Amino acid sequence: MNNTTAxxxxxxxxxxxxxxxNKRERKFTRKSIASDFKRHKFIYLMALPGxxxxxxxxxxxxxxxxxxxxxxxxxxxxxxxxFIGLTNFKDFFSSIFFARTVGNTLAISxxxxxxxxxxxxxxxxxxxxxxxxxxKRTVQTISYMPYFISMVVIxxxxxDFCSSRGAITQIVSFFTxxxxxxxxxxxxxxxxxIISGLWQGLGFGSIIYIAALASVDQELYEAAQIDGAxxxxxxxxxxxxxxxxxxIIMLILKVGTMLSVGYEKTxxxxxxxxxxxxxxxxxxxxxxxxxxxxxGYSTAVSLxxxxxxxxxxxxxxxxxxxxxxxxxx
Length: 329
Known about the structure:
74% helix
């Protein structure tokens, strides 16, 4: 007995039984968690409303995804509606609306990615170069204001300006000779959507880049000036590398929402004359679900949209982590 005890005392820790080791680790983990809760109980209490919000409005509603596989009847509910498998998905993939809605959604998303995304960064860089504080704050305030205007008001402004007698229509007619309502011309829908979105979100979207620019070490600029670098070279070799991690993260998030173009502005502005270029996945889900009461079908389309976004997010995050070592997870 004494020999066994002596032998166990001289055994290396790695040779101790894994079962006892895991038990001690679990006990230590539970003790640490309990101690952390006790020490930071007020912080956890402050976080409780946010946790409850996501549980109630993000996780519990996910049970409604069962409707995608049902011929949903409100009278029967989710548990009583007949199960039809992948029929809703097959109907969507085989319909004429599949190519149109997915194509329009991707077209708008790619235009936003190619125009709005870089312009927002350029705007932040230009603001960062302004040395007059009063002028800089004035520009920031003016550029932020449209973001806080209701989408209904924004849509009303666009409708008035793009009407047959609107200011924008008159400018366009100077070059084209046509005075028809711009919102009735399919070819004009995407430029109207992108330009109005850029005007509304340019200032607010630049906030995160301005914050990132403030964290760039100013001593690097002083060293660059001593070496004879002008402002353009300083931007290329100091500013852009300094905010590259933020730009990559925002790019990942943007690609991860490629198919999540908001329906609000589309529904407020589009009409049957421009469905060919204006109809997107979210507006199609709105029509099928709330106007035609086809809840199972609209849920299936929405689920397809979410799955594709998730795949895009994971793939983009993987590529970013592989080639730039910056990623969300």
